[in-house]
Each structure stands twice: as structure tokens, then as C-alpha cells.
Amino acid sequence: xxxxxxxxxxxxxxxxxxxxxxxxxxxxxxxxxxxxxxxxxxxxxxxxxxxxxxxxxxxxxxxxxxxxxxxxxxxxxxxxxxxxxxxxxxxxxxxxxxxxxxxxxxxxxxxxxxxxxxxxxxxxxxxxxxxxxxxxxxxxxxxxxxxxxxxxxxxxxxxxxxxxxxxxxxxxxxxxxxxxxxxxxxxxxxxxxxxxxxxxxxxxxxxxxxxxxxxxxxxxxxxxxxxxxxxxxxxxxxxxxxxxxxxxxxxxxxxxxxxxxxxxxxxxxxxxxxxxxxxxxxxxxxxxxxxxxxxxx
Length: 297
What we know:
Layout: H1 2-12, E1 20-22, H2 25-34, E2 39-41, H3 44-48, E3 53-56, H4 60-67, E4 78-81, H5 87-97, H6 101-104, E5 105-106, E6 108-110, E7 131-134, H7 158-169, E8 173-176, H8 179-207, H9 211-217, H10 220-225, H11 233-242, H12 244-263, H13 268-289, H14 291-296
Parallel strand pairs: 1-2, 3-4, 4-5, 7-8
Antiparallel strand pairs: 6-7
């Protein structure tokens, strides 16, 4: 879905070159039919041959494996990815590419997606209004990571700048973030909500059957809260494995918050928690309406 959307968005943004895909034969056939790619290969090396930009849009574990093939890619090609965790990917790129890691590989994460995957859900407008996070690999192998803004001597390559221009034409804003910070923030803002939706859906499935299930289907709150439960395990397995520490910490704090709710169903503590939650929600809405003003306030 991400790879197909990137192809469609690139073409709509005016990219005039050839767009190649790499996947199973049946997926490539559908991608060509949608106009997401011009041609496709089942071999990654065949797809990469002669390419200027290579986007690894796959589950995190597959991306980590693919990074091992980068030395066989065209030496001048920029390789980037769309993985939802970054620290493990950055470490793998450093191990494989050494001093050249920062030049050849640009770790990225578009904050855009859907609860359903697959080429059939590709969307040319998927990235419009979204943020494309990057975690540039700065300095020699083993040196501390930090934001590019804190490294005035760091300069992006021409290929990296061209990539930023391309995603900018897709309507996307590029922002830099340090890999460990990225993984921690995503654990709270993305990975925890997914686990909550999954847990809620399994509890409801255990408890509801027959007519109860029909009544549940009519309830908007439960439908909205379980929307993410449609997300594929194949994606979230690797996210959980590569961000386990952050996710465990987030789940533990959620467990404590749920315990607090349970213990205060008949006290003023319930009201206090509701009020805190409402204030947080208002801040989110204000930021979505006007990010610049929300940050000033």
C-alpha cells in the first residue's frame, strides 16, 4: 500500500522517469494496472539496477534484510525506507555500509497509512498533508545520533535534496528526528493505539456473540475504537520486535491508568481522569487546526 501509493503520488507530482516495482508477480500485475509502476521485477537487485532512487516499503524485518543488499545496488542511487521503527534500521545500515551509510541510505517514515494494507489500497493522495520523518545517519559509525539542526556542518546530498523536493510536491512536509526519539514517540502515538484497538477487539469478540454482536456493530464508539484492529499482523510483528522496550513501557503505563479507572469508578478520581483526558484531546484538536499557533501557545 505504501509503495504503490508512492508510485501513484510520484507520478501525480510530475515525476517523469520510470517507476519500477519489486514484489510477487500477481502484485506487480495489479500495480501496473493501477498505474503505480511502469514495470516490475520479482528480484530486488533487478528492480534496483539502474535506479536513482530506491524506496524500501516493506515490513521492518524485510527492510533490515534488504539493507544487506545495498552494496550491490548502483553506487550513486539513494536508498530510503518507509519503516515504522528506525533505530534497528539505522544500526543495520551502519553495520552494512560503514562510513558511507549517511550518503547512501536515508532512513524515513511517512506518517501516513491505512488500517488495511496491499496494493489494492494504494492512494495517490495518501501523503498529502502528512509528515515524512527522516532520521539522517550523521557522523562516523558508532558516533551519537542527533538532529541535523544541531549539526550545522551536516549537508544533505543532491540526491537527498531531490527526494525532499519530490515528496514536497506530493504535499508532504519533511521533518528530522533522532532515531531513538522517533521510536519512543511512535510507541506512544502509533504503536500503543494499535495494541489498544487489538486488545479491545479481542475482548469484545470473547464477550459478544449472536444478537449482542449485531448490537455492537451498530455502536459508533466501538466501531471507531476497533478500526485499527483490521491492521495486518505481518506489519505489526516486526514493529513490536524492534520497538519492544518502548512499547512494553507504554503498555505498562496504560495498564496502570486502566487500574486507576477501575479503582475510581465511584470516586472523584474518575472525574479528574476524564477532565485530564478532555484537556489533552483539546490540545490535539488545536494542533491539528493550526500547528504553528498551537506551538506558540
